[in-house]
Amino acid sequence: DIRGLVLDAVFDDVLPLAQRQMPSFASKFVEKTIRYYLDLNNIQLLKLYNGPFYLIRRTQDEIISLIPGRVETNRGNELLFHVLHYRYPFIYNDDQTLTLLRRYICSSHTQRIALFDQYCLNQSELQTQTREYRMENPTPSYPCKFGENFSLLERQRFAIYLIDQYLVNFDSPHCTPLP
């Protein structure tokens, strides 16, 4: 039994990373090779897993980011974006909240703090609501119904809060060992 995952410097799909490393004339060859022999689609794999996970995103990653060192191009963002949307369809169910999700994930540390403070001022209330839902639904199953009756503002508050429950930023390049 796997009780939890820690995913370090992970990506959503290996294809964009492989194509970035190869000359453009080989694009179709790379795509066919990846899809037939090395199809590492971590979004689909993580959707099959119902347990807890942490995604450690290296903020200066030169391998997993399409533009080295640019956190907004880190492929782990796409993994988190898709998995949270899958797990919590009632939270991430409108364009405004999805835009907020992407904005928060791709923001600098300072911008994330400002957004978190704006939306998650009463963090203990958010923790309580999350805990109550888990007590009512002790066996995790995704997609879940959490947030089914929430207002837009409540969904946006939880959109930010849930990201921080899954995402851990580590200020380092790709190969630095974790502490």
TrEMBL record:
Record-given protein name: Uncharacterized protein
